[in-house]
């Protein structure tokens, strides 16, 4: 009997057994450290039962106040800035001087033209007398008259250029930006100041297509600013959008007269109220309960202890809640929180 061969076979079998045992032990250790999700295990979620609620803001639409007029002022001619007579926050009136450009060279040119005009006027008088006495030809008188006309046109041009060195306010407003200083250089197209008129404001809201019928051009509606809810404002509809935005809503624009002390500022948020007394009943759910699949809004509802993905139709948002116009009925149980690992058909337990 070949004992060496037998011992070798036994040793090989032992090594193979040891390797197999080690691999099995490593697999069990690894599996014990890895989380194994059990699809049959119930998922704990927060849920709420659907019921009709009073929608206090059903006839309220949020929007933003914007200035009625706003412009950046630049010079019509180029030149050095001699003086800036206003600062940011200054109230200005239409026609008030804001910036004075250097016009000394233009004034000297004007004086030269005025001297030229005086000489040409004397020539016209002289040639008129001589022509009547047949002492000179009439063509000399015509040349003098034409020269006088050209000089007067040049004078008018210089006067217009000098007037443009004084930059004035185009309308009543407030200086909201100062973009240059004394000693700077002004040129056409380079903004120097920004003036904003908030005595009249534009207020814009975005309205779903189903609610457009509630707004009529030239009709007035009650508007309030979020930070000043006690100040009652009146807005007249001046524009209804002809094209919907990406949210399938249409812009409605109102013209609103500001308070005497211009309390309402550009950029503030506000609301337009269609009714103070009418209260609408509807289905409200937390916006966080809504998921999106293929561009369609859906929610998880609980039926027979299982999660069911239900398509819904959204009307609009109010704060952190959403009005649902279709897809849900009173008594439905909607999952409001706890979407981790949630899937259609999952077993559910409610906190």
UniProtKB/TrEMBL annotation:
Domain of life: Bacteria
Family statement drawn from the similarity comment of this UniProt entry: Belongs to the membrane fusion protein (MFP) (TC 8.A.1) family.
Ranges for domain YknX-like C-terminal permuted SH3-like: 284-349
Record's keyword terms, sorted: Coiled coil, Membrane, Transmembrane, Transmembrane helix
Classification lineage: Bacteria, Pseudomonadati, Bacteroidota, Sphingobacteriia, Sphingobacteriales
Species in which this protein is naturally found: Pedobacter nutrimenti
Residues passing through the membrane, by range: 6-23
GO molecular function terms noted in the UniProt entry: efflux transmembrane transporter activity
Pfam families: YknX_C
Coiled-coil residue windows: 103-130
GO CC terms: efflux pump complex
The protein's name in its UniProt record: RND family efflux transporter MFP subunit
């Amino acid at each position: 009997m070949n004992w060496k061969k037998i011992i070798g076979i036994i040793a090989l079998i032992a090594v193979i057994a040891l390797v197999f045992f080690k691999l099995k032990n490593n697999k069990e250790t690894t599996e014990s450290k890895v989380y194994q999700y059990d699809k049959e295990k119930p998922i704990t979620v927060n849920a709420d039962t659907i019921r009709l609620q009073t929608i206090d803001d059903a006839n309220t639409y949020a929007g933003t106040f914007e200035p009625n007029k706003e412009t950046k002022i630049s010079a019509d001619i180029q030149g050095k800035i001699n003086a800036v007579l206003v600062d940011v926050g200054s109230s200005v009136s239409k026609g008030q001087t804001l910036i004075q450009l250097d016009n000394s060279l233009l004034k000297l040119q004007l004086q030269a033209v005025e001297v030229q005009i005086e000489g040409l006027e004397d020539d016209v008088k002289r040639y008129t007398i001589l022509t009547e006495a047949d002492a000179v030809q009439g063509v000399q008188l015509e040349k003098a008259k034409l020269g006088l006309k050209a000089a007067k046109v040049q004078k008018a041009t210089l006067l217009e250029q000098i007037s443009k060195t004084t930059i004035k306010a185009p309308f009543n407003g407030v200086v909201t930006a100062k973009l240059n200083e004394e000693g700077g250089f002004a040129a056409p197209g380079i903004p120097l100041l920004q003036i904003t008129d908030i005595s009249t404001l534009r207020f814009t809201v975005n309205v779903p297509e189903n609610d457009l019928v509630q707004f009529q051009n030239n009709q007035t509606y009650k508007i309030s600013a979020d930070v000043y809810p006690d100040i009652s404002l009146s807005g007249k509809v001046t524009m209804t959008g002809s094209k919907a935005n990406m949210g399938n809503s249409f812009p409605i624009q109102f013209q609103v007269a500001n308070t005497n002390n211009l309390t309402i500022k550009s950029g503030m948020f506000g609301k337009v109220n269609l009714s103070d007394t009418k209260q609408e009943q509807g289905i409200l759910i937390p916006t966080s309960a809504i998921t999106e699949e293929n561009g369609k809004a859906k929610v998880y509802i609980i039926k027979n202890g299982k999660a069911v993905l239900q398509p819904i139709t959204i009307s609009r948002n109010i704060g952190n809640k959403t009005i649902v116009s279709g897809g849900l009925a009173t008594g439905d149980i909607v999952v409001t929180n706890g979407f981790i690992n949630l899937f259609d058909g999952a077993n559910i337990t409610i906190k």
